[in-house]
Model the fold of this input.
Amino acid sequence: MSLFATPLAFLVFFSGFAVAQISAPNCTSSTWEWSYNSIGQNPCIVAAYMLSTCKGGSYAIGALPTGSVYTGPSGTDGANLCMCSTVGYSLLSACGGCQGETWITWSEYSFNCTKTLPASQFPNPIPAGTCAPKWALLDVTNENGWDFNKSYATGGTPELGPGTILGSSGTSSTSASSTIPGPASASVSDSSTPNTATPKATPIPIGGHGSKAGLITGGIVGGIAAISLLVAAFFYRRRRRSRASFAARSAPESAGDSAFFAYNTPMLSQIPSRA
Done:
């Protein structure tokens, strides 16, 4: 292991924690522009932002293959209240529709949810970087599905901006302003490659707000410790070899005692993704 590679390894490892990823497909039909919010984000991008609040700030929605639908949560996502909300369902339904595909009913979508939120509610405030159009808050439970015509007639205004809470007591905080600032660490990209019909979180572990500095500091300290250990091992082995060489010159039939200095290089522990 190269001494010079150690600091670089730490930098490469921790660089994965610096950027939160929001990835979503493009809409393929211009007739769906009515569903975009005021900052030009299609419903897929808005959905990824909203769903990311239950996944540590990162979320990826794959493009739908022809003839596919977003099937709703399954497995551990059955307890994901962001996905098990009518807001998440409506946004994903419009996301499928704007790609030229269709969508499933609310009962089909929420079948695997262990709990669903009341209509128009969402478990977390709207995140920075996006705003939610009004049509995404419509009650879909009465019709048991997202209604294109009703959403189109409702439109996107007034839309709701970052920090808005969609709770049981009604919407609180302020409506969206003309400028929607995004988080400094967020990177938005459009995914046009078909992936899977089930939205999923990106495999980028994201820590809490106060954990990044600790991770970086720990990485630096660990790197210094690793370098110090390797340097100490180098000089120790060199000293032992020097002694062994001297003993060999003084005793022609040396027993050949070989002392190897075994050391463990500190390994980077895998930090699990926060669910």
About this structure: The radius of gyration is 27 Å. Residues 19-190 form one domain. The chain has six helices and five strands. The first strand starts at residue 20 and ends at 24.
